[in-house]
């Protein structure tokens, strides 16, 4: 597929884009800074500027595309990762503005030029736990996509707003628009730097979960290849917890009194990926224990 990928130069994107190229996709990275990866084409632009996004979708991405004489090559899909990646980087109002207007602008332009597949990065923060003021526990475990999303910070608010925006665009267009509630992304070099965590409590804000950046590429590839779901959101994480404790030990130490929705395996993540496994065949391969 020919894919416009926004934010491909970011922490997650710089691993996802090469993975997609390896799967045979043609990827054009639309970002404020280029991505120096073999095979990727780069266009510089701002996702909050409608003219920039529209232009990226309706112009050649490189000189080789002028050779065919058939006009501008259309895109099959848009993958939208560009965003301010967390709170405390920009003022809160700017984080909310960039993330919400960027998503609105990208989806509007994609549908406007006839693209029928949009995949966008939502976040684990939508559940209101990651950036909570003080400790906030889930309403139940494991946390699945039905868990309430009531955040208290500008970043998570923007991601919840983006899901509403995406659902509304899908309702009127009937295109496929999939949101990925991505957990804490780990790059390959981070395993030896961070794992194993000396204090498991460091991971409570991430619901003791993580996702390898390469496995996130696998998830995006599955979404590109899966049609007809309409609007859906999916948790994205590794099947196992990010700490060297069993699920029972984590529950006893951190989740006493929290309702348990179902029985859990002893090495199962508390950030449920059952939906992605069932509907998409999601099968992450990189485990932190194999990387340290």
UniProtKB/TrEMBL annotation:
* Keywords tagged on the record: Isomerase
Q: What is its EC number?
A: 5.1.3.2
User: Which Pfam family, any one of them, does this sequence belong to?
Assistant: Epimerase
Species: Palleronia abyssalis
Question: What's the name of its gene?
Answer: galE
| Isomerase found in the keyword field | yes
Question: How is this protein named in the record?
Answer: UDP-glucose 4-epimerase
All residue ranges annotated as the NAD-dependent epimerase/dehydratase domain in the record:
3-198
In its UniProt record, a GO molecular function of this protein is: UDP-glucose 4-epimerase activity
